[in-house]
Specification:
The structure is a single chain. By secondary structure, the protein is an alpha/beta fold. Helices cover 38% and strands 17% of the residues. It has 12 helices and 12 strands. The radius of gyration is 21 Å and the shape is globular. It binds nicotinamide-adenine-dinucleotide. Nicotinamide-adenine-dinucleotide binds next to loops.
């Protein structure tokens, strides 16, 4: 079986990290036929537009895409390619796994969370205006619909069931936002009742932030609205080890696109220094989505062991400040090669060593915020 997947290398460090991801994908033995299309700066140079329609056509045709980061030029008049992709393809679920890897770069090595964020409405619906002429007051509409709330909550419960996750937590601010918050809360409660096999609970957004930095291991799948999800995704990426190792995925009903959380890091472009792990873990998520679970497990395991062994890691994983055991940094391509070498060799039968953290053990009782 050959999978046809759209590949958007992007710009900045995008071409380097997507090349690294392809090398690792190849090592799994899963046959992927990459359909390479350009978006971002290379597309502007070639055709004058950062998102040619051929890119959208390719993703629609293949249903699956791997994407490198794309620069949003400031003040050029082009809207963000990333936002345009989400809107044009109705990619309504932004999924960010936050897994600490080998105890590196985190105070909470046991962190293993998935944030599911509604990505089409809420406070990012773009309905906003200045109230007066001298711009001394402004309003943004927080658009929450029952349809979008139902589908994102359902998505989270389905994900939890498929991935054998232990709990789904719905996050909102229904105590203060009596309409928008309450609507999302009701959607969450009614959907939770349809999944009696999956434990669920609710948290107010402020309390959720506090609980996550005290004991992230109490949580598993978190589902929430757009703005809260944006903030929680970054908070959880930070808990798990930071941007260099944070993959992401966007889902619509028939399309899935995988991209790292980090941007195009222009200052490292073309230097073979960028950390390829986030993009490589996007390949892991892509393989999981295709049903290639063993290949996906091998990629995660090879990344874990490469970071744990720390012989061939990029600068961000090698230097003091990230790690208690600094080492000389390697290049992006060398790290990818090392991960690819390990992919067929890893032993999936032995459970991953789960380092225990030193964070405070007790979770405070929930207080009304
Ligand atoms: P960034 O993520 O590119 O960089 C933030 C910091 O992290 C920088 O110091 C950068 O050098 C470092 N960094 C990021 N990824 C790294 C990696 N893989 N290895 C090593 N170091 C890494 O964020 P930014 O500087 O705010 O944005 C740069 C551009 O990327 C902007 O144009 C922004 O709009 C775009 N962006 C795109 C996406 C996307 O394509 N989905 C996401 C975020 C930002």
């Amino acid at each position: 079986m050959v999978y046809r997947v759209t590949l958007i290398p992007g710009d900045g460090i995008g071409p380097e990290v997507t090349r690294a991801a392809q090398v690792v994908a190849e090592a799994t033995g899963v046959s992927i036929d990459w359909e390479v299309v350009e978006a971002g700066e290379p597309a502007i140079r070639a055709s004058g537009t950062p998102l040619p329609s051929s890119v959208l056509d390719s993703i629609r045709r293949n249903g699956v895409a791997l994407k490198g980061p794309i620069t949003t030029p400031i003040g050029s008049g082009f809207r963000s390619v990333n936002v345009a992709l989400r809107t044009e393809l109705d990619l309504y679920a932004s999924v960010r796994p936050a897994r600490a890897i080998a105890g590196e770069g985190t105070r909470y090595p046991e962190t293993d969370l998935i944030v599911v964020r509604e990505a089409t409405e809420g406070l990012y619906s773009g309905v906003e205006h200045w109230v007066d002429r001298d711009h001394s007051a402004a309003e943004t509409a927080n658009v929450i619909t029952r349809k979008a709330s139902d589908r994102i909550v359902k998505f989270a419960f389905e994900l939890a069931r498929r991935e054998h996750r232990k709990k789904v937590t719905g996050v909102h601010k229904a105590n203060i936002m009596k309409t928008t918050g309450a609507l999302f809360q009701t959607a969450f409660r009614e959907m939770a009742a349809r999944y009696p096999d999956i434990p669920s609970d609710e948290r107010l957004i402020d309390n959720m932030c506090m609980q996550l930095v005290k004991k992230p291991s109490e949580y598993d799948v978190i589902v929430t609205t757009n703005l809260f999800g944006d903030i929680l995704s970054d908070l959880c990426a930070g808990l798990a080890g930071g941007l260099g190792v944070a993959p992401g995925a966007l889902f619509g009903d028939t399309i899935a696109a995988f991209e790292p959380v980090h941007g195009s890091a222009p200052k490292y472009a073309g230097q073979d220094r960028a950390d390829p792990v986030a993009e490589i873990l996007c390949v892991e998520l892509l393989l999981r989505h295709l049903g290639e679970r063993e290949a996906a497990d091998r990629v995660f395991r090879a990344v874990w062991e490469t970071i744990a062994e720390k012989k061939v890691v990029t600068y961000d994983l090698a230097l003091p400040g990230y790690t208690a055991r600094p080492v000389p940094p390697s290049t992006c391509s060398a790290m990818a090669k090392e991960i690819a070498r390990k992919v067929p060799l890893v032993d999936l039968a032995t459970p991953l060593p789960r380092p225990k953290g030193s964070g405070p053990a007790a979770v405070d009782p929930q207080l009304d915020g």
